[in-house]
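We close this part of the discussion by returning to an individual protein. Part of our work consisted of pairing the sequence of a single chain with a tokenised description of its backbone. No coordinates are needed to read the tokens, only the vocabulary itself. The amino acid sequence and the backbone structure tokens for this protein are reproduced below:
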Amino acid sequence: LYSCYTPATLLLFSYFVLLHRVPLIKGKSARESLEEQGLWDEYRGKFPFNPTRFDDQSLSVSSEQMTNDADLAYFGVISIGTPPQSFTVIFDTGSSNLWIPSIYCSSAACANHNKFNPGLSSTFKNAGKSLSIQYGTGSMTGFEGFDTVVVGGIPVKNQIFGLSQSEAPFMAHMKADGILGLAYPRLAASQATPVFDNMMTQHLVNKDMFSVYLTRNSEVGSMVTFGGVDPNHYYGQIAWIPLSSQMYWQITVDSVTVNGQIVACNGGCQAIVDTGTSNIVGPQADISSMARAVGAYSANGDNVVNCNSINNMPAMVFHIHGQAFTLPASTYVRQSTYYGCRTGLQSSNSDLWILGDIFIRQYYSIFSRAQNMVGLALAR
């Protein structure tokens, strides 16, 4: 079968067949849907963005802090059970639990999402434990079970996951059914074993790493790749950055500059690379400084700019581990049909920065559990 291939081609072929890919769809975010319905201002007032999950002191064994982010837009499909039941999930490197709605949930948020029916799966086992995930504006409560979870064609047996019985109201506006956490076990509520940890211990991946590619505008093409990296998704060399803490995918940022001047993170700061947050989030004073430096002003809770000025706006540069990671204005400014142009800069009360989807769209991100490092390369 392979007689016509050179050894190098065979090696490349074998490398690619060991990768497991989950295509992601870039759909409408909750913000976009609510803007179309004229409900965004009302929604934002009721459910403000509140990244409370990133305060370490708030973590406990029984609950996991999560954030209401109305701008998330990337979702992939997994299946659970025998025969399989399919669900869309956010692949979230900022949390560690897998959970999906269940047929026992009567919240409005469950009414318009797919719900798991344990009675239809011959491999389901009730774990006999409750689960509570606290949001900034409500909570998800439910119980835990075990079943086969298929991710990118990988059957992960005896995977623990949460089945919701109640969900916060803002989840009704989210496209995804649930969340698949890809952070470290230390972050998991109820000491649940994360999906990727089971992939590693069950020897289901060639390498103990996964990588994320997010398209800028196209609805298709985004990808989570388990077991390695896909050279089709980046240019040049990969910059490997050691983790400063093994709970989130946390790294040290040396500074943030605009036009060669330090505008934020002076003297260094801690940041997490987080696919479960859409924007770049930082302390209020630093975010305000960055916004001023690029010519943005505050309006209606956003840092906004004149849409005609984007081509003349300066880049933001994140200096990490001795290397410069540049975000041109075209990457950090979003244009809304209803609300003009806003930057993806969001302030919080935490000192921990979040490098969300705005950053990851520009830099293909590789998450190595084998080396406890994050790899960053310019995305194609």
Summary: Confidence is low (pLDDT under 50) at residues 1-17, 52-67. The radius of gyration is 21 Å. The domain at 231-379 is CATH 2.40.70.10 (Cathepsin D, subunit A; domain 1). The CA atoms of residues 29 and 342 lie 15 Å apart.
